[in-house]
């Protein structure tokens, strides 16, 4: 049965949405409001104005977009095997952004980028093949900064369609395959970024993280994934999913490489605005020291056994708890907190903004979406405007409350990156299985709240389990304390080797 068979097709969109909102909120006393909506339905539907498409994207008109001056291909499509290689498009030109060389700080580094981050006049599909004919009018300043520092940009990455899957699912290109064990998925939505780094196809990749989409695939593939504080890196040239929560992040095989690339980006005026750099350079209060970690009891309650065991072993090795077997608390403070309301608010913001952004990219033709993404985007059309406005308005206050009540006097918070190990591959994934559906929703539990709160975070790999996959340790920092966060990741990575 199709997703639309249970709808009244002759009913107006505004009536269907109104009913969905009431069901979503379990509203009461709706008789009068339903009558008013019904009376105004024709007017409401006829006056709807769709948001305009992105002005910096345009359709390719001539073959000159696709060839260099000597009529050689500028890129080679590799969509067919992108779910395994992580590369959806390989660049033939040595300098794709044409940036003027200013240093050699990134010489020797090979870079890829998620296929929602623009290079002028190159394809940009956001994981949806129907966008293959679009060409950006501009280039992401992050890519320009990388090439101007000597980095080589070698290709664009496979990704979850419109960045809407924590598992790496893509209806059109195939689901991202975990290079450490093909029985598992790569995680998403920056699936190809993690695959390319973990398989050695590149050294560093740019991904995007709206609710964990850099940290999750990095964790599942056993590499490092860094999400900066919100608003640190420019999102110019990014196809948005949720403009309130989107960040561009870095995936690399080790924390030192992430730190090296981040230093170059931090110093570029086009990447980081001056006022934000001032905050990055401002030292944290001297009273803030050390770590607070999610309590052993909370981890055992909320995480799969293998993840809990890896996290407890890591805390023991770092010296934050005294006994791996029993999780005996040590000198470091531990915390147990309920972030269900923060998770709910994050989902509300992403759902509404994704519906708007995906809709305008596809000219409101939902048939161009895969089923899983369509089901997620459609939620955004039935979220109450009041709930969305409240979620946006309360972010700053909730950030302060979280820092005070959870992080306290500690500089960093440690949690597992995800409460679940790498998700199973499509061959063993049963979408009707309630337990597996629950896992899908649980995957981002520790990650999406960090985007909502605007905090920086990084995932570093823990020792591999028997199936060769690796849980991740998430280090969460305070707003704009990114430099110290990256230094901490380098130090902890050395301790956990």
Which descriptors would you attach to this protein?
497 residues, alpha+beta, 12-stranded mixed β-sheet, two-stranded antiparallel sheet, 16 strands, globular, disordered N terminus
Q: In terms of topology, how is this protein built?
A:
Blueprint: H1 13-25, H2 31-46, E1 57-59, E2 75-77, H3 82-85, E3 87-91, E4 110-114, E5 134-136, H4 141-148, E6 152-157, H5 191-199, E7 204-209, H6 215-220, E8 224-227, E9 247-252, H7 255-266, H8 274-281, E10 291-294, H9 296-302, H10 305-318, E11 321-323, E12 328-329, E13 334-335, H11 340-361, H12 371-380, H13 385-393, H14 395-407, E14 412-416, H15 434-442, H16 448-453, E15 457-461, E16 472-476, H17 482-495
Parallel strand pairs: 4-6, 4-7, 10-13, 10-14
Antiparallel strand pairs: 1-5, 2-3, 3-6, 7-9, 8-9, 8-15, 11-12, 14-16, 15-16
